[in-house]
Amino acid sequence: MKSDSATVRSRLIDASPVHYGWVILAAGTFGSFMTLPGQTAGVSVFFDPVTADLGISHTWASVAYAAGTLAGILPAPVIGRWIDRRGPRLTATIIAAGLALACAYMAFVQSGLMLLLGFALLRGAAIGGLSLVSQQVVNLWFVQRRGIAAAAASLGLAAGSMVFPQAIDFLITLYGWRGAYLALALLVALTILPVAALLFRERPEKFGVTTDAGLPPAVKKSQAQEEPSFTRQQALRTGVFWLLCALGFLTNAVGTALLLNHFSIMQTAGIARADALNILALYAGVQAVVTLGTGTLLDRYEPRRLVPLAMLMLAAASALPVLGGGSAASLLYALCLGGAYGAQQAIGAAGYAQYFGRDHLGAIRGASFVFGIGGAAFGPLPFAASVDWTGSYSVALVCSCVLCLVCGAASFAVRRPAPQERPS
User: Fold this and answer.
1) Over the range 115-132, which residues count as b (16 or more CB within 10 Å of their CB) and which as e?
2) pTM of the predicted model, to two decimals?
3) Domain of 227: which CATH number?
4) In Å, how far from its chain's centre is CA 230?
5) Does any domain span residue 186?
6) Is residue 67 part of a domain?
7) pLDDT digits (tens, 9 = 90+) for 90-117
8) How many domains does the chain have?
9) CB-hemisphere CA count at 13 Å for 240?
């Protein structure tokens, strides 16, 4: 692990009435919360009014969303290395400003091509940027209690999924979808931008502060393992890296497709739009509970051991719309989808740091984000093709269910990576 040759003094950290790790946890959680303008749960509320106003089909909008997402994640590895070299504070400040500008741009979209560019800016700033740096700053400040801390920070995303869809729908009702995007731009500029500039900090050792917010280790000292230190190249040669990437890819692919087409799927199941919004809120609530529960488990069990849980719930969420409709099936669907997302978010947020350490975590997470967000880009395409070719989502849903079960089974064949020597 890297060691700082000299301790840096920070008046803000010295003046904090509580251990600054708690401030970092709150700031990282709020950063995750404010990614919602670029998350699928936020974009899906805009989908119908935007396509209707621009006169484009859902299929073209899904293609634009996929292409924009792919373009948006291309800088993720560069952003990850930038965090390692320049720290999360400067990176988060620049990204937050970019997210505000991306929301403002969306308000002036006039064509399908402009929409594609808008999706690239929005997804890149929110998912490839703010989400990455918000997770990273928490991982830098928590080691032995990383599982529960990373899960707690991920609750920001779950809380955003409960709050933002309803708020966005209200703003669209008042001001139209363009006015709603301008309101989101202002909100980002007035909230997460100053939080990132004022509160985000590098790893605590640099400031002479202990990790884990000063709390005792979650496990006994005799059971605690020395923190690993993998480079990105070393991590890429391990099976567990690719297992976590597969988990992120499938969850984002299937989950994004389901959320992006949420109102259409609910309509097919006989659920009205107002009730579909409530189901989104239920999904987010379940996501929050499961994220926190999984985070607690991660401080005691290896992340790879929890992968089958996430994949089994996602397989069930994929199968339920095929098996039946109505309120009961839709509620169970929300429970399974929220559980799958919650488990994956906790595993992804803490798993890479647990297996590979903090020294090169930005570069490693930057690489993994390409696969995770790549799933979000490609996921909606098979669903759109399924509707165009067969008139329903059934083929795509069945294939998604099978892939999730395969990934869950594959986790039993993956071993924990061997300890690596620390680079000099």
Assistant:
1) bbbbbbbbbbbbbbbbbb
2) 0.72
3) 1.20.1250.20
4) 23
5) yes
6) yes
7) 999 999 999 999 999 999 999 989 999 9
8) 1
9) 22
